[in-house]
Each structure stands twice: as structure tokens, then as C-alpha cells.
Amino acid sequence: MVMSAASRQTDGIAVAAPPGPVPTRRQVRVPAAAFGAASVAGMVLVWWAISASGAVPRDLLPSPADVWAAATEILRDGYRGTTLWGNALSTLGRLGAGFGLAVLAGVPLGLWMGVNRAASAALDWIVQFMRPLPPLSYMILLILWLGTGNGSKAALLFLTAFPIIVAASAAGARGVKQQRIQVAHAMGARPAQVFRHVVLPSAAPMVLTGLQVALAAAFSTVVSAELLAATDGLGWMVISASQFLRNDVIVLCILVLGGLGVTLAWLMRVLDRRLVHWRGRD
Amino acid sequence: MPRALPSWAIAGLSAALLLALWIGVTSGGLVRDLFLPGPRDLWDGLTELVQEGYKGRSILEHMGMSLLRVGAGFLTGAAVGTLLGLGMGFAPRLDAAASPFIEFLRPLPQLAYLVLLIVWLGIGESSKITMLFLAALPVAAVAARDGVRNVPSARLQTARALGASDWQVLRHVVLPSALPEVLIGARLAAGIVYGTLIAAEIIAGSNGIGWMIMDAGRFLRSDYVFAGIAMIGLAGIAIDRILVWVERRVVHWAGR
Question: What is the predicted ipTM?
């Protein structure tokens, strides 16, 4: 590729090539954060201008001030007998339960499938079928089996995260260089030692990538499940607010959910750097 | 002992075991067919769905409607997202300005903003397709941005040293190097869009394959629910396979 691109460029010079302008795209004098802050501020300004101009009815698009008022009102008085933090905590609690179970079951199973050919052959097709299946499609069955309570939601989140985690862990363990395993064996390591000191560290970056993807998927799913059937949680708050035409509350919930999503993704990245600081240095 | 068996035989054995278990618990009356229909019931339900359709529409129509929505949302979202991402990869200022929104939108549960889109655009197609557009956009944008950023700087410098203009560098160096990541992003986005649409149809649909399983569940037709889930799964796998095929055709140089 380099070669072909290079030869074309020499042709270009031969025909007509004024030496291009000095590349300026790497020179940023204003710090990037300032651009980010300015663009967010600009967006809020546009939002405020649209709602202040009256072009869009206020009950359709609440103004930033309306959302702020809704936030202070809900923080002070709560929302229909619940609090914002309470709802956020129930959403996170469900997420934690389902995702935690999926980690506890999925990582060991995936690693085992990665090192044991028979286990992989017996189980891999099931995981491969489950993985592209939209999780909410089995929500209906889970409600039928377990009712509309927290059991069906925890099971749903487990089933959302589990195939992703198993597939990533298996791929991580499968991808360990055979050479390393053989060297460890040759140096007299027992199978448990090989697993602990060779397979686990090599597979860990992939496992953690899987956990990040799985948590993001589970976060999206928990809100969907709460929209469908719940009596608390941020998803319930959104659907309840839509029934009472409280668009200010919906926007508030979306902002809180976005903040939570960004925070969860950030926490996973921090965890990733802490746990597998050797990532990419193979 | 199992070490002597080839992998396909083990997979076959485990499938047979699962099937035997399924027949065992359903025909033995251990589980009511409301909760888990037996293979026979499921087959009957499936043929009935295929022959008679569901509530006035054939099963292909329901599936087709869902896939059209997925196609419309995915293609628009991936196209705009990729262009934005390429721009972000090139221009650090655009990157800094767009990043807060992209990073906010990416982990945001899509169904939460669907509720707002329904208030604005009505319950019809436009709210769903807008949601899918917004679901695909940040995923495609991040992939394209990272694709541009990961172009080895040696290649860029070589091209520039040889006198290539910005446009030539873009066309002959950056795009070919970034394309594999762009396509991986597209595949990821397609999976997310598909899952999101099924969820949207389940929560706020009046047709489509996701709505069908929800409606069948309401009438306790669990044979239809199971058949529908199997179809949803197969269509999901098919979408993924198609994109893998496209990926192999288009970027045959990936990894070299």
C-alpha cells in the first residue's frame, strides 16, 4: 500500500505539484477542552434560543431553565413518591446484580472454553447463537417465567452480558501463544501454574474488553426493561413522565442517564488500566 | 475419551443432549407448554405463522418492516457518523467540538430518547428511524475517528515528503488505512441498531417482528414467542454475516 501510494505521488509531482501548504492540522493553540466547552455552551445557547423564541411549543421542548427547575423540584420534593437518587440506585442495583452474576459465571466458563477444546465444542454454538440475539426479545419469556419483578430483570441483564463475556474470555484464552504455554510446561510448571501465570495474564486484556462491552449493553438493556415493566428506576421515571406529559422530567432523566453511562464507561476504563497495565505490550 | 472425538461430534452431542432434555421436560409434563412449548408445538406454531401470518400480515411482511427500519436507520447513521468521524480524525478542533456529544450519546440507552422522539415526531416510522440514526452515528463516528488516528505516521510523512497534496494523502493513504476500522465500526453499529429496533418494537410498536413477539406474549402464545425469537436470532446472524462478507470483499488488505 505504501509503495503504490508513494509511486502515485511521484507521478503527481512529475505532472504538476506545487509543494502543498505546510500541514497545519496538528497545530492546536487553543486547548481542545476549550473547544469542547465552547461547543457544549453553544448547544445549550441554541437550545435556549429555540425554546425562548417560541418557535417550538414549550410543552414539546422544555427550556434549559425548565429542566433546571424540574431538577431542583425533584431533588427537593421527589417524583411521585420516589427520589431521583432512589431511582438511579434501583437502576444501578439491577445492573449490578445482573452484570455481577454474568461476570462470576461467564469469565470462568469462557476461560475454561478457551483452554478445553471439548468444552468449547459443546458450548460455543450456544453462545454464538445467543450473542446477536437482542436481549429484550427474551424479556417476554422471562416475564412469563419469573413475573414482572426484579428476578426477571436480573435474569435479562445476566443473559445480556453473559454471552458477550463468555465469548470474549474464550477468545482471550484461546489466543494465548502456544509457545508460551509450551515454554512454561518445559520449565516444569504444573497445569494450574500455567493457567495462573501464563493463560490468565495473556487473556486478561480481552476479558476486560468484553466486560466493557457487556456493561454498556446491559446498561442500555436495563433502561429498556424498566420502560417495559417496572415501578421504579430511571427507565420507569422516563415512561411515567411521558404519560404525564412532563417533557422537562424526560430531558432531565436523559441527562442523568447520559451522565451515568459516561461515568460507567470511564470507571471501566480506569479498572482496565489498573488491572491490565500490560495491555498492548506483548 | 472426549479428546478422541472431533469438535463437530461434540457439538452435535451437546445439541442432541439439549434436544433430549427439551423433549423430556415438555412431554413429561414437568413444564407447562405455556412456559416452554415442546418441539412439536413449536414446529406447529412456526408453520402456522409462516402459512397464515400474524394479525393480517404475513411473517415476511413483519420481518421486512423491521429490516427496512434497520436499513434506513443504519445506513443514514453509519454514513453521517463515518463522515463526521473522518472529519474528527483529521481536524482536532472538530474532534474537540463534537466529542462531548458523541461521548454522551454513545452510552446513552437509546430507548430513553425514543420516548422524547415519539413526543416530537409521533409514534410512526420517523421517530424509530431517527432513534436508529442516533444509535448508529456515535459508534460509526468513533470507529472512523480512531481509524484515521491510527494511520501510521510514517506513511503520512512518506506521502507528504513525496509531495502529495492533502487530498491525495486522504484519498490514497488515510482512507485505505482507516477503512478496516470504519467497517468494523459499521458492523458494531448494525448489531446495536438491530437490537435497539427490536426493543423499540417491543415497547412501542404496532407491527414488525419485535411487536409480534410482544403481542403473542400478551396472548400467552409462547409457541409464537419462541418461533419469533428464533427468527429474530437468525436475522441478526444473517445481518452480521453479510457485513463480515462485505468487510472481506472491500478490505481484502486488512491486517497486511
Answer: 0.86
